[in-house]
Description:
Number of helices: 10
CATH architecture of one domain: 3-Layer(aba) Sandwich
Oligomer: single chain
Largest sheet: 6 strands, parallel
CATH class of one domain: Alpha Beta
Bound molecules: guanosine-5'-diphosphate
Amino acid sequence: MTGTFSLEGKRIYVSGNRGMVGSALIRxxxxxxxxxxxxxxxxxxxxxxxxxxxxxxxxPDVVIVAAAKVGGIHANDTKPADFLYDNLMIASNLIExxxxxxxxxLLFLGSSCIYPRDALQPLEEAALLxxxxxxxxxxxAIAKIAGIKLCQAYRRQYGCDYVxxxxxxxxxxxxxxxxxxxxxxxxxxxxxxxAKARGDDTxxxxxxxxxxREFLHxxxxxxxxxxxxxxxxxxxxxxxxxxxxxxxxxxxxxIKNAVGFEGELVFQADKPDGTPRKLLDCTKLEALxxxxxxxxxxxxxxxxxxxxxxxxxx
Length: 314
Ligand code: GDP
């Protein structure tokens, strides 16, 4: 279902504004004639009363749930309680506070890991809850599925115009480069950069190199979010992907070239592969009228330039 929701003059709360997605949304919203609201760092989104009080005082018209506890395969595997509890609380508190403060529109952001591990690829929206999840990130996935369901339930019970978007693997400025918790793309950029600086002969890559992943530049995601706020009002979540699918080995090759590292890739079989393939079917979003613009090679080159320009990466 398409609509024409105007952002003109609206008070738009971007939660998670210090994260990669939140900061991309704020950059993108500069091109809209609206007022961006952010909460102070001291506000703990897991604490219901703090969130409720902030909403009562700041009365946003539009809420974007870009706040989340996020992390790569290792972080998810070792901190299951944090990934489940924090994300459930963030989603519940923001969605309920938005209703109490009579926000007109809410966009909830999740991730492609909500889909069953063995679902048919490319993953259609309808594949949600049709089979068991990938074990390495089911904690995060369950919380994100709960967020989608909250939006649907609030839409049905209260008539709230709450929608959900599920992006594929993201990268771009402001990514997390901590090797223990990061996703593969920033991890390999940093590892290749450091390997080159040290003059190493090899670049270690976790797993077999065979898993397939799709990558979307965060500026494309931010643009898709603004598009969905304006043009989508429906119960079903919407996939946001790029169609840029590569194996981890191919990704490592692209990164090697971008960084100018000339050594060999070494695949570490003792590290997990995770889900074998994760490609989104974006037919729905394309039919609404949006598609990604930033190609993987171009996006990685820009991200590496930004990585090199910042001085600390911890
Ligand atoms: P996922 O997409 O949820 O599985 O999360 P990741 O981005 O962390 O991992 C994607 C794939 O990249 C997995 O197969 C990892 O084993 C692989 N990979 C290869 N090298 C690395 C690395 O240095 N860090 C991470 N996080 N993943 C890596």
